[in-house]
Structures are given as C-alpha cells and as structure tokens.
Design brief:
The chain is of the alpha+beta class. It folds into 2 domains: 4-163 and 329-345, Aminopeptidase; 173-301, Gcn5-related N-acetyltransferase (GNAT) (Aminopeptidase). Helices cover 33% and strands 28% of the residues. The protein has helices at 14-23, 34-43, 108-125, 139-142, 176-182, 185-196, 209-223, 230-239, 284-298, 314-320, 355-358, 363-374, and strands at residues 4-8, 46-54, 63-65, 74-85, 89-94, 104-105, 129-134, 158-162, 165-171, 200-204, 244-251, 254-264, 267-275, 303-310, 325-328, 330-335. Strands 1, 2, 3, 4, 5, 6, 7, 8 and 16 form a 9-stranded mixed β-sheet that branches. Strands 10-11-12-13-14-9-15 form a 7-stranded mixed β-sheet. The relative contact order is 0.15.
Amino acid sequence: MARYQIEYAGAGDRERWDGYVQTHPVASLYQLFGWRDVIERTYGHRTYYLMAIRGQANGSAADRVEPGTSSKNIDGILPLAHLKHKIFGNCLVSLPFLDAGGILADGREAEESLLSEAIRLGREIGATTIDLRHEEPLATCNDSAASFWSQDTRGPLNVATRSDKVRMVLNLPKSSEMLLKSFPSKLRSQVRKPLKEGFTSSVGGLELLEDFYKVFLVNMRDLGSPVHSFEFMQNVLTVLRERARIVLVYKSEEPVAAGMVVGLGNVLRNPWAASLRKYASLAPNMLLYLRMLEYACESGYSAFDFGRATRDEGTYRFKEQWGAVPMPLFWYLISLDGEPLDPEKSGAERFRWAAHYWRKLPLEVTRILGPRIRKHLSL
C-alpha cells in the first residue's frame, strides 16, 4: 500500500505546486498557488497548503515534513484558509471567496491522507468545521459509510453535501465572429441595444482597476452585500497578472458595467461582474458579457465559466440565455465538534436579514465597513 507524507508548502514550493496543478486533468483555476498570496496579503488569514508526497513504506500517512525537504513527486494537494471570528465562525475553508479549491489528488489514498491531515489540523487550531469546495465529486466525502469516517479516535465524523449551487459553462466556437452567429436572434438584439446607445468597451489590467471598483462598489451596496476591498482585487490582478484581465463598458467616460476574467488551461472564468442599476434599461451588462466572451474566443479558450449560480434564480436564467450549461458544484462540510450540519444555511446566507439595511447605507460607509465584514464571509 502506498503511504504518504504531508508537506506544508512554503513560498519556495510555488513552482512545483503550480506544475502539479497545471498538468492535472481536473484541476481548477482556484487551486493555483497564487490565491494563497491574495488571501494572506489582503485579509491576513492564515493559510495551510498541504501536499501529499509519496513516502517510505513505514511512514505515517500524516507525517509532516518541512517545505522543500522532499524531491519526490506530489500525488495530491489541498489548499486551506483559516477563517476565525466570534460571530462568523471558526472554519478551515478550501477556498473562501471562490467557487472551488478543495483536494486535487491522483488517487483515493492520497486524497484520504490529505483529508486526515486537514481534520487533525482543524482540531489542533480549534476549527469547528472544514468546508471543501469541489468541481468534481470527492470519493471519500461521497462515501459517507466508508471506514475512513469511523476511524477517528474522537468518534465518527459527520459530513454533509451542499448541492444547490452550480457553475454555468459555455463551450466556445473558434472565433468571435462565429460566437455572435451562434446566438439566437433575441440575444443578438439585446447585445445590439447598448451599441446603438453609444456604449463603448475596454479590456486591460491594473490601469482599469479604479473604474472597475467604482462599478463593483455600487453594485454590491445595491445587492445588500459587503464588498471586497480594493486591495483584494488589486492583489488578484497583481498575483495572477498573466492570467487576469478587466473588461469595462462605458457610457461616455462613465464606467457602467465591469467584469474580471481569469484563465487556466482552456477555460476562462468570470469570478466577479457588476453593472449599475440606473442604466439597466440600456443593457450595458449584455455588452459586458459579449466582450468577455469575445476576449475568451480571441485568446484561444474553448470554454467560458460564467461563475456560480443557484438553479432557477435570476442569475441562473441570465447565464442560461447565453447557452451556458449548468455543471454541479460539490461542496462538502465536515463537522469537527459533533454539531449537526445544515449545509444549505451556511456562510453569508445566515446574514440575509442584514441585506435590507445594508442597501440603505451611504456608499462611502460601505467602502469602509464592507471589507471588514467581507473578509469573514467565506462565500
């Protein structure tokens, strides 16, 4: 039987970590090492990036070695961030603020070794839950009757699956010209509307960040949700600079719709998008998504991920009209304190009651207070 040592990755392991991610057939963008820098630099959360290294036959599956001490191949990874707050909870998350992360492994033994160490670590630091977000099902968590869950010396562990979220993915044609032709006539008409109104667009990097954030800040306030800090978005663009771009739509010189796209492999993803409600009747968001899709085609991507949605809600239907197909997300919650799990009521959804009042706050207040709250909300 193969045995694994667990190595805690440090800054010097970035290259081999990303090398593993970039060559794995089911890897996610959110498993790249750079997200560790974004989370730590912006919000100061402690991160633990675990690597399963094939060890000696007599080694323990949970043995830990210092970063860089092993030259053996990685057989699995698990990025984790520790979110701890007296109101918002104490949880290990893979990964907060993103749709995915979770375990990436070459087999079940490596998967279980990483999961065992995450559970051990969680208990050591006093976490009450582990939140693993996957785009592919995790064998160990899907098999709740497996012996793995009854081996813990403190009693059987509880695991629950959250299944209400999907990601919306569109397979792309070879060119932007073919893209437009593939849309139904009603969609093409909606796209032409902002063009007839004289809206323009731009694609770039950090030079567009201030305009992006102007739209993003207003949109998040209007949605009743605390906003990520300006520094968070700045760090995404800086750390993932070769992969990340901003797309903006303008009315004259005013930014009215904005999106950020980040790519890995053949998939370009849109983690964040926003538009100003006061211009909704002129459909600037339609031009925004057209430009993001065109950029994806022109950059050689074969699929566009519109991001997370809940089935049959407004964002789901909006993304579906572009031809995007729902693909399930597998989010697993593991209870470390014996408390029962309710995965459908986790994270920011506990605080929906506050959205009504948040919408009434002055914009500058949300700019200051938003990031101080948002850093503790894992969704």
